[in-house]
Automatic annotation (TrEMBL):
Its main location: secreted. Belongs to the DEFL family. It holds the Pfam family SCRL. This is Uncharacterized protein. The keyword Disulfide bond applies. One of its GO terms (biological process) is signal transduction. It is found in: Secreted. It comes from Thlaspi arvense (Field penny-cress). GO terms for cellular component: extracellular region. Residues 1-26 form the signal peptide. Keywords: Disulfide bond, Secreted, Signal. InterPro entries: SCRL.
């Protein structure tokens, strides 16, 4: 009788422990979002366009690790050439 009671209590405790572990594993993890910046700057992108954009955008977001793309603006207004920088960072 004692062994049957001990077995039932052991099974009950194991069930509670395993159930609690599943709840802990299923807890949602906080993930960072991705923020995006875009701006226009004078001149063309050139061969190092992404680096040009990173340097220009670091002035706006100095503490962020930026990933940038550079696009030459398709239209020229008043003979001014421009490029567009689109950057992303974890926020």
């Amino acid at each position: 009788m004692k062994s049957a009671t001990l077995l039932m209590i052991s099974c009950f405790l194991m069930f509670i422990i395993l159930h609690h572990m599943k709840e802990v594993e299923a807890a949602p993890q906080q993930t960072k979002g991705v923020c995006e910046l875009a701006d226009q700057f004078p001149g063309k992108c050139g061969k190092e366009g992404s680096n040009v954009c990173i340097n220009e955008m670091q002035k706006k977001e100095p503490e962020q690790k930026l990933r940038c793309q550079c696009f030459d603006h398709p239209t020229v207004i008043l003979a001014w050439k421009k490029h567009i920088c689109k950057c992303r960072y974890d926020c």
